[in-house]
Amino acid sequence: MEKLELQDSSQNQHGLADNTVVQKWSGYTTKGWALAIYRLLVVLTGGLVWVITQYRPQTCLWTMQKCSLSKATYVYVKLINGRQELLKVQEMPSLCRSHSYLQQSGSGDFRTPTVRVVHLLLVVYVYDLHLDTFKKLPDMPANLPVQIYNACKALRLIEQGADWSIFNPPASWQRREVAQLYGNNDMQTGRPNFSKMVGALLIYPLYVVQYYELAYKFYERFYQLASCLIFIIIQSGFLSTYALYQKRIHLFQSLGQKRVVPIVHFSRIRAISSRWLVPGDVIVVLPGKATCDMVLLQGNCLVEESVLSGEAAQVRKSSFVTHEGERSGAYHPETHHSCTVHAGTFVQQVWTGDSADDEVLAMVVRTGLRSTMGNMLQQIVAPLHDMGISHDPFIPDMCRFFGFSLVLQVLLFLIGLSGGWHHAQSRTEVVQRALDTVIAAIPVGTSTVIICALGACTQKLRLKGIDVLNPSKLKAAADVSVVCFDKTGTLTGSVPELHGMLPVEEGQFLGMQCMAMRWPNRLKQAAAVCNSLTLINKSQVVGDAADKQAFKAVEARFVERNLVSLPLRLKWDRPASLTKLQVLKRFEFESRLMRSGVVAVDSEEDPNTALLFVRGAPAKVEELIRGGVLPADYHQVLVEYAAQSFRLMALAVGELQNVTSEELAHMTQQDAESMAGRMDMLGLLVLSNHLHPSSKDTVTSLQDKGGIRTMMVTGDYHHTAIAVARGVGMVPQGGQLVIIQAKSEKQVLPRMPSHIPPALGTFRPPAKPYQPGSTSLSGSPQRAASPLMISFSEQASPEGQQGPSYELPQSSSIEGQQSLSSEGQQTLSFEGQELERQQRVCDGLAFMVDSGNDFEDWDPHHALTNIAQGTAQCCVTGPAFEHMLQQADASVVETVMTNVAVFSRMRSQQKGQVMDLLGSRGLFQNLGGQERHIPGLGKTCMYCGDGINDLVALASADVGMAVGSSHASAAASVSDRHSSVAGVVTVLREARSSHVIKLAVIKYMVVYELLLSVAVNLLLFVDGSRYSVIQRSTLDFVAISLGVVASLRPAAAELIPARPPQQISSCKNFVLLLESVAISVAFHCGCLAVLYHEPWFSGSTSENEQNPVVSAVWPVSLAQILTPAYSFSVDVGAFCQKVSRPEILLNATYLVFSFLCAFVGPSWFDAANLFKFYHFKFSYTYKSDLVGWCFLVVFLTVLPLTRKLWDRYEQRVPRISPVSA
Q1: CA-to-CA distance for 582 and 598, rounded, in angstroms?
Q2: Do 1134 and 1047 touch, CB atoms closer than 8 A?
Q3: What is the CA angle 1012-1017-1018, rounded to 5?
Q4: What distance lies between CA 955 and its chain's CA centroid?
Q5: Ranges 352-356, 908-912, 1175-1179, 1213-1217: which has the least confidence
Q6: Contacts from 1005-1008 at CB under 8 Å and sequence distance 24+?
Q7: What three-state secondary structure class fits 529?
């Protein structure tokens, strides 16, 4: 068998090269005695040790011994983002000696008796003995391109009469070995597991602590309270997880369907389950859902790819073309979309060009989780950027707050214990009270209230058509400072419509033609055959909506699948005659070429002359046009229409002389264009794609009300993207926008027309058509473009010249670096080192400013200075962004990211890189063999997209929001079922409300426990008594029920510029805790002082029942519960609405209950005798009422005053974040 050494060019699911995902591999073997001790500790601690090792894998390394990777049974992995994993090494017997399907670039030695593999993030890594490391298993076998080439060659020989036994013989590749390593064609590994999802939620540290606390409550015989809390936690966890599980299992079932497929094996066709397919199998393609990624070897098919793009899109797929001398064929599914059928897409129809009896054959290239849909599931189940609980900054922050609470609890306990020793306290009672003190530091009901608040938030969003797929991301959503939008399908409509045509004749535009009867004949023919339309079932035409409109406009119809008829008027004085066009070959759209084409023969013309029609991006089609045919105002027209958010497609035609069908069968589009020579421009197809009605309001609300920066990251051209950005308000009308392009895409552009309306959605071109020689839509001539400024990328110093001088616009000024020449021009002079650095960094880049109605070239240094100072925003194209990242000096990237508004012509991986640079992770690169890390801006970023091309960005952003597409939610945290961005504001409002409620709940429960501890320890100090079970349970029930109802408070109606605090352990909160404790101590002491001065009081009974001290303190504890409730309302007031009706009713009920207990006395419920209180006289009740009112006045005065003073202090002394520092 022929051996191939080919570098697998695929990237992993996260858009990173394989060598940048894992930072370090370390091998370990287990120690028997240490492992036994570890298991014993797990049993003795009730699983606590196991929970800790789940969060911190390095904590169990003491049970292992470090060794080489070749002998390791466990591998300790450190990823580039700091995440750490402990993986078990699996060994499989090697079935062959030559693992050619693993070889990459001639490196690696896999010839071992066993194959050692580990699974990391659902990706298989194989041990390489030569490099002594684990290498990622390629998504498809490395020798598969050779196998594809041999199969295509065999098919050509079979057409010439050879036997089918030469086609993909089993002896030519190791099917068993590939099946052993790549596994079955299923996604069971990535199937959502409900029990694991529930477990991951319930082992959150705060919940784990509460489990131990509830167990202790059972021990103390608080059965009702503990049972109620356990029920609420488990039920809420199951309900919230089940909703997410249903969403994911529905996606899994829709992507993981299996079917019976015909496979070509030993020259025969057998029927097997698609579950047993492996890379290298050849199958017969039938209509239905594709279960794996496969390349067409013979025939064609029509595929519905809405699962990839998020919109209805029928795409024709043709067979893969190989050439003699290309042994490998250079095939890869990510670069050969036109011949690849992706898993999850739906094959609508199949056919062959020569004979209807021939089967459509395809070779399987990627299966299971390595397929297109499998990668989507990997984004859900095992995202790289999910740092887990161990790296959640909220955990240590919460621990610090609880630690401060523990210190206060211990101080109160020690004070109470100092007097409790005189009241015959046994050691058991002291230990029990000490445990109560520790548990009170982390209140029992905190987790219950938090999970109820989280469930309420997700439920409110679900009722509004928004599904929260990852509830843990709501905390990040509350702190979002940058929102990035895709353009098509997100800010604008996803289905463009035909607006009209701009025909070209004799090198001039004829003007906007909305009626097809005025189009030239060649343009009509191009509209009839050069499109995405396909005939299926002999009567149904499927394809793009705009193509259908153009097809109908020229009155064309399908006679057969490759035969189209349309009426053409050969002469103006004669009626139209029916003409037929026979399609010989179609070249599907390729993102690399950015154009498509078709070869057809006109029945009324010379049969030896075939017509080559090309349609694509205007800049790419322009390269094919012969001189003198391109209109002089071509670029002006592109700018004017693109500036009004129209999409333009250029159409051109050429001729192919005496081309045979065999030559055409193996011809690529570039070969056909080269054979046709220079082509003629036919015209521009104008498509409208209007803004969503809610786009502008959403962006305005985010920027003006929420103080959030908005950006656009799109694959469209920058002219259209800038027009949309100005239309929605990302770029102010008339504001300066620096366009940064690569040198290769820089063009001399004319002035912008001054009549561009601000409302993009309502724009209609003027009725007056173009006149020859005009340069604007209105027909009024515009002034010529200003001379191109000399940039660092284009200036070359002539021989003998000492140094270049750079001309600046008259409005430019750089302080301290300008000198005015004698001719009145401004020039820049830089020191040699600075000039060299600028030349190196800006080499290959061109800078141009767009002020809304004018274009002007700027000097690179002047442009970057304005961007850095914030006086100008910028738009960066994909090629320019790629060029910046390839430079050793990353200063330009860092400067641009601070004030960029639009990214255009961005590929999927580049969108993910933008998210990394905006966030705190930064971008990890392998530049020239050197590892480099570009730090991020430290912003919390949200990305909104709707298609498969947004998956990397959705996964890389702190919060990913899928808009209008169920399958784009594979990598998203939030999914909006509506096809608009209006839900962004709703998500941010609810997330802020949920987060601030969570912080307020923790603070509320801690304050409640502190105030309760004041009462408990005061009883211990006075007479050694304590609350009974029913007295304590009643207080806990009141506090928890108030917290639950308060957590259901609705979010604020609008965004505000302020963001909720991300930390709870602040000095402000610590001071408020101390004040609350001090006021509570004073309140209790006042009530007891009144009691001790009563003449009828003869001292305490030291019993819990009928004890006057307990009876006096308990109503105070009940009344004090409303004080942290007031603090809760103040904390959430800015991000939530006013007190809800259920909260008012519950507070009023408890207020009446407290009044009856404290002011009327316990005699009002003597019939039940639930609390066993002492019967007080009215004189004491009257005095205790006065003390209570004084306490209320002090509380409502001191705490708000402290808040105001502290806020003023923070305004005078702003906090400097580490990122800005």
Answers
A1: 10
A2: no
A3: 95
A4: 4
A5: 1213-1217
A6: 1005/443, 1005/445, 1005/446, 1005/449, 1005/1039, 1005/1043, 1006/401, 1006/402, 1006/405, 1006/441, 1006/443, 1006/446, 1006/1073, 1007/1073, 1007/1076, 1007/1123, 1007/1124, 1007/1127, 1008/443, 1008/1039, 1008/1121, 1008/1124
A7: helix
Between the CA of residue 70 and those of 28, 269, 1077, 1133, what are the distances in Å? 10, 43, 61, 60
Picking from 406-410, 493-497, 510-514, which range would have the lowest pLDDT averaged per residue?
A: 493-497
Let me know if 268 is exposed, middle or buried by CB neighbors in 10 A (0-12, 13-18, 19+): exposed
Of 24-28, 138-142, 190-194, the range with the lowest mean pLDDT is 190-194
Residue 705 half-sphere exposure toward CB, CA atoms < 13 A: 15
Site of tokens 């999850």: 344
Cα separation, 1162 vs 617, in Å, equals 84
Q: What is the radius of gyration, based on Cα positions, of the chain?
A: 36
Task: Quote the distance between the C-alpha of residue 1109 and its chain's center.
Answer: 59
pLDDT on residue 917? 93
pLDDT at 392 over 80: no
Q: CA dihedral defined by 598, 602, 603, 609, rounded to 10 degrees?
A: -100
Segment 411-435, tens digit of pLDDT: 999 998 887 676 666 788 888 888 8
Reference 123, options 377, 293, 334, 345; nearest CA is 377
Give the span between the Cα atoms of 202 and 280, in whole angstroms: 44
List the one residue out of 1029, 1099, 1098, 1102 whose CA is nearest residue 425.
1102
Residue 974 to residue 991: CA distance in whole angstroms: 11
Q: How far is CA 814 from the centre of its chain?
A: 40
pLDDT at 874: 93
Amino acid code (one letter) for 923:
L
| Burial grade of 1217 (CB within 10 A; 0-12, 13-18, 19 or more) | exposed
Dihedral sign, Cα of residue 127, residue 131, residue 136, residue 142: negative
- Band the pLDDT of 755: cuts 50, 70, 90: very low
Residue of higher predicted confidence among 751 and 732: 732
Contact 850, 752 (CB under 8 A): yes
CB atoms within 10 A of CB 649: 20
Q: Do strands 680-688 and 497-505 pair parallel, antiparallel, or not at all (unpaired)?
A: antiparallel
Distance CA 1006, CA 1003 (A): 5
CA distance 626 to 236: 69
At 796-833, the pLDDT tens digits run 333 333 333 323 333 333 333 333 333 333 333 334 55
Tens digit of each residue's pLDDT (9 = 90 or more) over 846-888: 898 888 767 788 888 888 888 988 889 999 998 899 888 988 8
What global pTM score does this model have? 0.74
Cα–Cα distance measured from residue 920 to residue 933, given in angstroms and rounded to the nearest whole number: 12
How far is 144 from 364, CA to CA, in rounded Å?
Answer: 10
pLDDT value at 277 more than 90: yes
Q: Residue 797: beta bridge partners?
A: none
The neighbour count for residue 614, using CB atoms within 10 Å, is 27
pLDDT confidence of residue 225: 76
Distance CA 740, CA 875 (A): 6
Q: How far apart are CA 1027 and CA 1117, in angstroms?
A: 11
Residues 6+ apart with CB under 8 A from 329: 145, 146, 148, 149, 152, 320, 322
Tell me the C-alpha distance between 1013 and 1026, whole Å: 11
User: Nearest Cα to 1046, choosing from 1141, 1149, 1120?
Assistant: 1141
Q: What is the DSSP letter of 322?
A: -
Stronger pLDDT, 448 or 709, i.e. the higher one = 709
C-beta neighbour count of 354 within 10 angstroms? 11
Classified as helix, coil or strand, 588 is: strand
